[in-house]
Amino acid sequence: MKKFLELVAEDLLERKNHSLHELLIIVPGKRSRTFLKHILSQLIEKPRFAPSIFTINEFVENESKLKLIETIPAIALLYQTYSNIITKEETIDNFWYFGEMLLADFDDIDKYLVDAGHLFKYVHDLKEIEQLFDDLEGDQIELIKQFWQNIYKGTGAKSQEKVRGQFLEFWKHLYKIYEAYKKELSSAGMGYEGMLYRETAIKADKNQINFDKKKPVFIGFNALSGAEKQIFNAAKAAGGLFYWDYDQWYLDKKHHEAGYFMRQNLRQYPSTLGDKHNFDNLRNKQKIECIGFPGELEMAQKTAEIITSKAKSQDDDPLKNGIILGNESLLTPLLQTLPDDTGKINVTMGLPLQNTSLLGLVKILMQVKQQKIKNKGNTLYKSAWVIEVLQQDIINTPNLKETLDTLINEKRLFCEVDLLQADPIGSILFPVKDINLIEYLKSILKAIVEYNDEEKNEKDYFNTGAAIKIYSAINQLTQQIENYKLDLPEKLMVRLIDRILSSINLTLEGEPLKGIQIMGLIEARTLDFENLIINAVNEGFLPSSSVAPSFIPYNLRKAYGLLTFENQDAVFAYYFYRAIQRAQNLTLIYNSNEADNDYGEKSRFLQQIAFEFPNTITENKYQHVVTPINENPIVIEKDQTVQPLLNQYLNGKRKIYPIQLNTYLNCPLKFYLQYIAKIKEPEQLDSGIDQRIFGQIFHDTMELLYKPLSGTKKPISKDMLLPLLNDETILKQINHIMAQQFGNIELQKKSNGMISLIEQVALKYIKRVIENDIKNEGFSLYGLEEEYEIKHQINQDQTITIAGKIDRLQASGNQIFVIDYKTGKVPTQKPRFEDLFAHDLPKRPEAAFQAYLYTTIIENYEFAQNKELTPSLLYIQENRPIHPIIFSGRKQETYADLKNDFKAQLSNILTELFDNTTPFKQTEDSDMCTNCYFKSICHR
Ligand code: SF4
């Protein structure tokens, strides 16, 4: 089966007896030109003069004698024109989106040769319509009437009245803006695309296009705008040739939307290639494979698998293997999935900058000024921001990766600039001196281009392209700001850059004549591939559900012959059917995951071909297979590898702490992973401050304040405590402790409201403890935050050391309270003694267990002899002194009553822990796993 461009090239060579230089060929896009030249060069045996081949855009730019203005200067000028006519103050960043819409509407109006004076006419009275628009046809007048009727129809709703009023006010000015804007552009010898088309169409209408005394040839067009039709008319009059790419299948069916425009084209400009046989391929299609996959990654993987099975490294024919991406965001997963030995790949498509990781980085970097702090001549950056920057894929120098690890591990809120400056890229990203934002961004983009160039990493070529595009957009913008002397505060500038960059497309154009071709649907026009995969064949992409926003309402678009959403569907239908009509091996892949909100159901085009070619289609649908992964529980035997590690507790090298025993009781496997295998949970730097750090500040401050009163065993009086109840004294100590944790505390407070909050909360709770201690005067303090230990005999040969740091040992008379501070909420229920040693119990009374174990530890110390020991908790959120632990249903029982039972159970659990025949197993209650770091290991 011959490809469309082969048919065209052969016909041209035959028709012109190889005198191609007599032709002026016009094609829809650059890619069609490249491939046409390639095919011509393969058919020509002897060197010949090449034909002139232009894209339609190049042709109209030449003919109109206007230079195409780029989007950024075009919208900046439109802003000026708008501001001169509508005096209401509108900032340029607010205007930008509005300007893009307005420009697209002006573009449409000119491409479709619409009389803008008519369209933007303000109608005072419905009767005016027939008089004003008497040159329009009956149904056009009806549509216009409907539009104005809707506008005038009162609904009584105030908000709607207001919107209608605003619309009419704006509508009144549109024609003035349109005219003034075009005048400005023409006087500068410039124009937007539509202007260039209209100018050329006017010339064509006056028969002033001479096509350079050559025969005009138009290849591969479909939906023609009014201006294009006028140009085609002139070409027809000049004996032009028209090569249309279509299939009889949809052409012959009067209502098939894929043939909607083509039927009109063939009537008005008959096809130069008359032989219908070459255009009747769909009817004879042998096989179409449709596959549904439940996600983007799976679609990308399948695409890579199919294409690599077909592509041979020696395949240089660029029309052999093609991939059309219905959704551009599939490009990155696809490139990552293609194996390294895939051979040449060419990507030609428009990729929104939004889909590149570089734009993400640039947006983060735009916050640089708020992240930098000067302190006594030193420059610091907020660590959370530095981490965010360094975690971006593009920043991958080894030095900066190391800095990133350091910052995460050290958990400091600020990062000294010296740490970052050691790396050349780091010194640009994190400057010491104040720098203008624009210059800062430009220097980074330049560095990224140079770095990627040095690295020569092919996968980075996106970043290089994106960096160049962003650099040039920023340059253009600053130039416009200078031209129009716009006074933009930096905040507004940041918003404007953000808005502009978010709507820009990166045009990827690689070496197109080798290897696998990856493209968008539009870039595939006129091309036929032997092996073709189309991806994301879902509603929303094929056809696209996004209709370009417009100020011109639907009725008016329809009345004036502008493209509407129905036309857009017909355009997509043509692109789709055209792409598949000559493919020999065709695979259509869609996202079958109905829960994926980014995708609609499978495309109507798929449903349509399933109906049209029922015997040709094979369909397979894959779903995520959900299998109970945890069929084999994780069990760690205490074998020769584990025993020596466990024995460190038995040979005096390690002590066991209450927190470790709590972990073991909750989940023996977690104890193994955390304390034997020593798998550490990574420290996360939180921009807020967690409970654990707050607890530490409270404990350490209490220790500092009470230390002078502790250890003497003398009763502490109210007078001794009152000096502590002073905000300044307490704050001084809190700040001293916080400075150890966070560095310069005054500086931190300025930038982190959380620090001041912590300070105030800690002050409140510490004062409350002191106040309660004052009420309870006469107690003595035996110790604060001190570590105590006991030896515990597991069996005849084995002893371990149980140790614990006790927050406060307080004595009143003969009673010693073993106190553990608790910063969390006060539990609503009393603990149960039976639960202290329970395995697999989600709400085990860990605090009571810990306080009981501390008490068991100090029991053997001399100061505790003959004393009444009382395990207690002090909940700092509660306004009362201490909670001696009372178990549910055991009100009368004290530590003395329960200690033997406690010790017996402690012995049992320690025996179990060190018993080599009892393996470490996972907890049986998966509620215990909810916040466990090892969830991914356990598949819980
Ligand atoms: S995830 Fe569950 S089973 Fe695994 S270690 Fe954590 S608590 Fe134990």
Automatic annotation (TrEMBL):
The UniProt entry, under InterPro entries, shows: P-loop_NTPase, PDDEXK-like_dom_sf, PDDEXK_AddAB-type, Restrct_endonuc-II-like
Domain PD-(D/E)XK endonuclease-like as annotated: residue spans: 660-939
SUPFAM superfamilies (alphabetical): P-loop containing nucleoside triphosphate hydrolases, Restriction endonuclease-like
The superkingdom of the source organism is Bacteria
Q: Per the record, a Pfam family?
A: PDDEXK_1
Protein name per its UniProtKB record: Putative DNA repair protein
